[in-house]
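Why should sequence recovery work at all? Because a backbone constrains its sequence more than one might expect. Tight turns favour small or flexible residues, buried strands favour hydrophobic ones, and helices have their own preferences. The token representation captures these environments compactly. In the example below, the structure is given first.
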């Protein structure tokens, strides 16, 4: 991690810890007092308080780093987004894909209920992970013997969700890297499958379970294709902190759940076919730099995340000033020690998150076609 990222991350981490701790305390209190009486009321309150934390990350992505996100879809789909339950199936490009989904959800008005299927270790991250647990993320072990029944029960628990929600499943199971792509290409070659260039081969068991469990009360599936504009790097938390802008184009095609096959094998093959189509779509995007569908010009960054950030910045600044005065943090050795401990804790907090999202060392040195600089 470079010095510039450390300098940036410490004050932002302090703010994140400050507001996140307050949110976690509210979540615990509501979980113990309101949820036993009304799960619906708890979900509404929990969504509202969690949204504040997610807006901090949306601000980091679209205002601080200047990340540009363009949406390409048909007008009918655009008008339904955020107003209906939906299962999202994006390709997994980078560690920032969760933040990208939240940015989409925020602009479509459903950030309070944008759920994601994530690896189990996520829930143990300080502040962020605890918030996602209350927020009803679905956590998996990546072991089907454990995950099968957990997924079914988690999906069924959404039947009485009080507001339109999104559930995002990354069917590839992991983000695209040179090593993972090489593994997928080798596997496809040995099995006589279409050899991917821009995506991985989807793991269909979780997707099949999602469709079969949700189709009775979720009307739509959004096939989401994420493409990085040529010459721009993959989005990542580190790059956002360093204010390195990126340009992302998102293509969405809506399918009615009624259109999908009825059998498990039929759904699995449908999923595989869609990823073959994604691969071809990304090939075409790499050649032309555009999608065929028109860009939704109304899909622009909102001021909501900026306003929330400024409010939390003000509250944090007031709290920090009061703490400095009350505990003499800037006037004696004991105060300096306490202040250094707080700053050190924030640096450790930032380091944990950056390490958690960092791309592991790659044996394959090939450049990914759709990801710009990896």
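From this structural description, the recovered sequence reads:
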């Amino acid at each position: 991690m470079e010095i510039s990222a450390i300098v940036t991350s410490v004050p932002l981490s302090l703010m994140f810890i400050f507001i996140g701790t307050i949110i976690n305390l509210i979540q615990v209190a509501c979980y113990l007092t309101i949820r036993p009486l009304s799960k619906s009321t708890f979900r509404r309150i929990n969504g509202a308080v969690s949204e504040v934390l997610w807006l901090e990350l949306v601000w980091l992505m679209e205002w601080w780093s200047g990340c540009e996100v363009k949406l390409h879809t048909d007008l009918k789909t655009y008008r339904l987004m955020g107003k209906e339950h939906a299962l999202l199936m994006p390709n997994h490009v980078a560690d920032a894909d969760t933040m990208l989904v939240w940015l989409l959800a925020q602009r479509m008005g459903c950030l309070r209920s944008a759920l994601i299927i994530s690896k189990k270790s996520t829930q143990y991250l300080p502040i962020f992970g605890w918030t996602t647990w209350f927020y009803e993320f679905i956590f998996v072990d990546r072991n089907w013997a454990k995950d099968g029944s957990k997924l079914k029960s988690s999906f069924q628990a959404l039947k009485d969700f009080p507001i339109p929600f999104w559930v995002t499943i990354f069917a590839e199971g992991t983000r695209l890297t040179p090593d993972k792509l090489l593994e997928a290409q080798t596997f496809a070659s040995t099995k006589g499958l279409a050899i991917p260039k821009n995506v991985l081969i989807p793991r269909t068991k979780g997707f099949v379970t999602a469709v079969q469990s949700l189709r009775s009360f979720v009307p739509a599936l959004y096939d989401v294709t994420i493409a990085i504009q040529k010459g721009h790097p993959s989005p990542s938390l580190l790059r956002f902190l360093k204010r390195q802008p990126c340009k992302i184009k998102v293509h969405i095609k809506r399918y009615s759940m009624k259109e999908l096959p009825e059998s498990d094998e039929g759904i699995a093959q449908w999923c595989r076919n869609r990823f073959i189509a994604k691969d071809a779509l990304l090939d075409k995007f790499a050649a032309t730099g555009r999608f065929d569908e028109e860009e939704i010009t109304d899909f622009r960054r909102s001021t909501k995340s900026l306003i929330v950030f400024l409010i939390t910045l003000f509250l944090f600044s007031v709290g920090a000033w009061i703490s400095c005065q009350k505990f003499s943090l800037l006037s004696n050795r004991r105060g300096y020690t306490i202040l250094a401990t707080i700053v050190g804790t924030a640096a450790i907090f930032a380091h944990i998150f950056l390490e958690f999202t960092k791309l592991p060392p790659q044996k394959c040195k090939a450049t990914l076609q759709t990801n710009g600089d990896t």
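A few observations help interpret the result. The longest strand covers residues 247-256.
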